[in-house]
Design a protein that fits this description.
The protein is of the alpha+beta class. It contains two helices and nine strands.
Length: about 150
């Protein structure tokens, strides 16, 4: 059974309010605080190429992901989901991808989203976004809400 709720994101000193990535010490503090909180939150581990969805200190979903390659790295820090789109177009200097499914922007143009155009999960291949298999992206999209914390670390 899924419970859908609206999570109101209140300012917290550990979370980036200026739009800039948080310093590493804030990431460490945020991880500890979120594990004690009971809140839903998302952890992105760039080293292991894993995403874990948490409810407080309980992991409820884990998937292999693809993050930014060395030339287009994924920023680390503590963020929050800003907008959600069932499907959107993504464009950059060297790409134009229509119908990107289950997109959740958490920092400027950086998002967690489904990737139907590759199957190289576990390897950094993106332009900085968090690529997830479409079925996993769907689950995350309906589990998370605007304001859900996203912690990206090495």
């Amino acid at each position: 059974m899924f419970l859908l709720s609206i999570i109101y994101f209140l300012p917290d000193p550990c979370f980036s309010q200026s739009g800039e990535p948080s310093p590493p010490s804030s990431v460490t503090v945020a991880l500890a605080d979120l594990k004690q909180s009971g809140r839903r939150w998302i952890e992105i581990n760039l080293t292991s190429q894993r995403l874990i969805a948490w409810e407080g200190g309980v992991p409820v979903y884990a998937v292999i992901i693809s993050t930014g390659k060395s030339s287009t790295p994924t920023p680390t820090g503590v963020f929050a989901i800003q907008t959600r789109h069932r499907s959107t177009r993504m464009q950059g200097a060297d790409y134009d991808v229509p119908d990107v499914p289950y997109t959740m922007y958490y920092y400027g143009g950086y998002a967690i989203h489904g990737a139907y155009w590759h199957n190289r999960f576990g390897t950094p291949v993106s332009h900085g976004c968090i690529n997830v298999a479409v079925d996993h992206a769907r689950w995350l999209f309906y589990w998370a809400a605007v304001g859900t914390p996203v912690v990206v670390h090495r």
